[in-house]
Amino acid sequence: MVTELLRSEGHEVFPFNNGNAAHDALEEQQPELVITDLNLEKSRVQGLDIVKKARALSPPAEVIVITAFGTVGTAVEAMRQGAYDYLEKPFKLDDFKLCAQRALSYTRIVAENHYLKKQINEKYQVKQLIGSSAPMQQVLRMIERVADTESTVLILGESGTGKELVARALHFNSRRKFAPFIPINCAALPENLLESELFGHRKGAFTDALVDKKGLFQEADGGTLFLDEIGTMPALLQSRLLRVLQDKEVRRVGDNTPLYVNVRVLAATNEPLEKRVRDGFFREDLYYRLNVIPISLPRLRDRRDDIPLLVGNFLKNKVHIRTGQPFQIARAAIEAMNAHDWPGNVRELENVIERACALSEDPLLRVADLPPAIQAHAPKEVHVPAAAPPATADSPAPTAPSAPRKSTGDTVFALPVQPGAKPVASGARAGAATPGAPSFGPSPGTGAPLDSLKDFLREQELAYLNRALAMANGDKEKAAEILGISLATLYRKLAEEGAGKTP
Questions:
Q1: pLDDT band at 294; cut points 50, 70, 90
Q2: Count of CB atoms within 10 A of residue 6's CB?
Q3: Could you tell me if 34 and 50 are in contact, meaning their C-beta atoms sit under 8 angstroms apart?
Q4: Which residues are 156's β-sheet partners?
Q5: Torsion over CA of 146, 148, 150 and 156, rounded to 10 degrees?
Q6: Whole-structure pTM value
C-alpha cells in the first residue's frame, strides 16, 4: 500500500520485507528517504539498526519510523538517533503522505544548503581567482597572507578589476567565513540613508523611522563589512566610521547608548585616496586607519597574458543555444582581444564574451562576433564581414547568408587551463574531436598514465551535469527533469562533483 502510494507520486521505491536485506542495500541504493518499522519480524536487524545505518550514509538519508501502540518510547529513541519523524500504527494515508513530503522537502533543503555552502567555499578559494601573470600572482599571494588576520584591508583598482571578488576571497578564507559578509556601495545612497544603513536608527529618530532598525555594522557582527567606493563617503560619516574602527562601537541614529560590534572592515576605491586627502575631501586619519594593508589590483591591459585564461573561464559552462555544443574561440579573436585596451577591465571582457555567445551563428566565436572596437584590432589577413544595411521596402533583408561563415580567422585557439586547477571536461559528445581544441587526457602512444576508471567516470558525469545545467540556463529544477533525477539527487551530485561552479 505504501509502495503503491509513493510510486503514484512519482518516486522511485525499493521495497524490502526483510530487515537484513534492507540494511545491506542502504549503501548501494543511497536513498533520500527511508521508511522502516521499528520491529522487524524474522530478522536479526531491528528498526533502530536501520535508522543508524541510514543516518551514517554520506549524505545521510532522512528516516520515518513506524511504531505500534506501546512502543512510543522506542520511537523517541529513534528520534534521538536522527530519525526525521515517526508514525503510530494505524495511520491515515494522508498523514503518511504529508509526512513523507515534509521529509523529502527537508532533504532537498539540506542538500541545497550543503551544496551552496560548498559552492561559496570553493568559489572564493584563492586558487579560483583567475590569473597566472606576475601582477596577479602577487595579488593572490597577498590575499593568502592577510586573509586570516583581523587587519583592515584597502583594495585599490579601476572599475571592473574584481575588487569585490577579492573582498569575498579575504572573507571566505578567514575564520569569519561562517559569519555574514555584507557589501555596501557608499556611492549608491545619499548621506542620510547611508548613515541609517550603516549605523541603524531608533524608532522616532526622524520622520520615517517607524521602527527600530539594525545597521549593517550590527548585521555583520562577527563577520565582514565591505565598503565599496569608500572615497565618496560624506565627511560626517567619515568621522563616525573612524570612531567605529577605533573603539569597535556603533551608535544608532537617535540613540545615546553605544553598542559593541566585532566586525572586520574591508574597503575599496577606484580613485587614489591620497588625492582625495590632499583636496580636502577625505580625512587623513581615516585614510591611515583603512590603509593598513593595501592590495592594488592590476588593470586587464597590464596583464594581457591572463585574457585567454579569463575567456576560458567565461566559456566553461556555456553551450551554443541551437546546437548544444560547447563554445570555442578562434585564434584571430583572441589576438584582437589581446590588442584591445579594456577600459572596463575584466567586467568588460565578460560582457564581450556574453555578447559574442548570444550573436554567434555556431559554436566557434569569431572576430565578427566581437564589438566593432575590438574588431578593429583583428589581424589584417582576417576578413570581417561588413554589417548588413538596414532593410527597406526597395531592398528587403536577405533571408540567408550569401556565403558560408568561413575565413582565414577560423583556426581554433586552444584555451589554457588555470595553473593548479583541474580541467573541466568540455561536454562535447563522446568521440567528437575538434581540431585544435585542447585535450585534457593523454594522447595515444604518449606513454602518459591513464586516470583511474573512477576518475574518468566522474569526469564524464561532471561534464554531463554541466551540460544539462547549461541547457536549462542554470535552472536546477529543469536540469533535474532533463536528467530524470530528483532535485535533491542533483544537489547531492553537484556537491560531490563540484559541478555548476561560477567562479
A1: very high
A2: 19
A3: yes
A4: 269, 296
A5: 40
A6: 0.63
Q: Using CA atoms of 387, 389, 395, 400 in order, give the dihedral in degrees to the nearest 10.
A: 20
What average pLDDT score do residues 173-193 get? 90
Residues 210 and 159 sit within 8 Å (Cβ to Cβ): no
Q: What is the mean pLDDT of residues 167-171?
A: 93
Q: Where are the alpha helices (DSSP H) in 183-234?
A: 191-199, 216-219
User: What is the chain's length?
Assistant: 503
Residue 97 in contact with residue 104, Cβ under 8 Å? no
Rounded distance between C-alpha atoms, residue 339 and residue 35, angstroms: 63
Q: Which residues, in sequence order, are CB contacts of 295 under 8 Å at separation 6+? A: 139, 142, 143, 146, 153, 154, 155, 156, 166
Which residues, 6+ apart, have CB-to-CB distance to 207 below 8 Å? none
CA 369/CA 357 separation, integer angstroms: 8
Residues 174, 133, 335: CA angle, nearest 5 degrees = 135
Give the position of cell 581615516: 286
Helix (H), strand (E) at residue 328: strand 328-330
Q: Where are the beta strands (DSSP E) in 396-503?
A: 412-413
**How many Å apart are CA 206 and CA 96, to the nearest integer?**
53
Q: What is the C-alpha to C-alpha distance for residues 500 and 503, in angstroms, rounded to an integer?
A: 10
What is the average per-residue pLDDT within 267-283? 94
> Residue 432: its pLDDT value, please?
37
- Residue 463: partners with Cβ closer than 8 Å, 6 or more residues away: 424, 425, 426, 427
8 Å CB contact between 19 and 46:
yes
The answer to whether residues 174 and 223 touch, using CB atoms and an 8 Å cutoff, is no
| CA proximity to 388, closest of 402, 370, 404 | 402
Q: Average pLDDT over the chain, rounded to whole?
A: 81
Q: What is the DSSP letter of 29?
A: H
For 259, phi then psi, to 5°, come to -120, 130
Give the DSSP per-residue string, 345-379. Answer: HHHHHHHHHHHHHHH-SSSEE-GGGS-HHHHTTS-
Q: From the CB of residue 72, how many other CB atoms can be counted at a distance below 10 Å?
A: 12
For residue 446, give the C-alpha cell: 604518449
Backbone angles phi, psi at 472, to 5 degrees: -95, 10
